[in-house]
């Protein structure tokens, strides 16, 4: 289960995963999505940076999120697994990702696992980022594991010369590529929907929370002076591995950038400029890594204006969807966490050190027992899986 940086809904992807010799086989069973109740979403908004909060509010939010995640998990289990699921893997909701001087020092995801275990009777893997940070990593992006097993294995001469990368357009955009020595690199590029959503929310007084169908960006014109100011952000020049979030890219950040201008762009021009910013960041990464194909997933694929600008600025890179490889674009990140939880209960590392910057790969997460005793599979005896096969 996943609630992303845009925190508009909870996605629960259900699938069967099994070892098949040196490979893993995933059979997707479907995606169950539920929007946040308005009151819970308002509580979450009130706790996120740069807002000040209290421990009371955090405690209430952790409980409210845990209860809601538990309800969603129980309904997804019944609807898609017939009530026969073995394990729930919950990413939770990130409320703070602590990065200082380029180093991740801590991370906090809310949504108490005990509530999920109580609602489903199933064991729960949660808190999937902290162990990597404890080993000196960024704790993000964790997508590198699925991307490397499913998408990057055929890069280069063994795949007709295709050099492929994977992009997720959530609140934050992150990319996974193969480095010069074949090692896996993954890092946060910068904002995708985070600043666009902030601009639309502020312009409409909260009546709209996103640029639906890219309509505002399509109407607006890019403000080149503002875009230049946005691109001057020091984060973009930090070398990977690196990670970021709404701790940096939030509404107040945007107001500060606008205050540097001697005028105020229209709401549509602002959204068009922020859309161009994301497209520029992605296109620059494609050039840096010499990509010829980019697999794009996440909520941003539903924004035609953003996808059009990505295609134009990244050309001749081909933009493809993960459906080409057997996974729905909207479900890919939820299946990522299903994969990570499967690796955890089999004693296998879920983070790739070259991607996160950790000293070594770590078995991720914490385990909460379900209704019965906690019984884990025997640790996997062989080497780590070499690829992920999607059974269609």
Automatic annotation (TrEMBL):
Keywords from the UniProt entry: Kinase, Transferase
E.C. designation(s): 2.7.1.170
Transferase is among the record's keywords: yes
Domain of life: Bacteria
Region entry Disordered, spans: 370-392
Example GO molecular function: kinase activity
Keyword RNA-binding annotated: no
InterPro entries tied to this protein: Anhydro_N_Ac-Mur_kinase, ATPase_NBD
Cross-referenced SUPFAM superfamilies: Actin-like ATPase domain
NCBIfam families for the chain: PRK09585.2-6
Protein name stated in the entry: Anhydro-N-acetylmuramic acid kinase
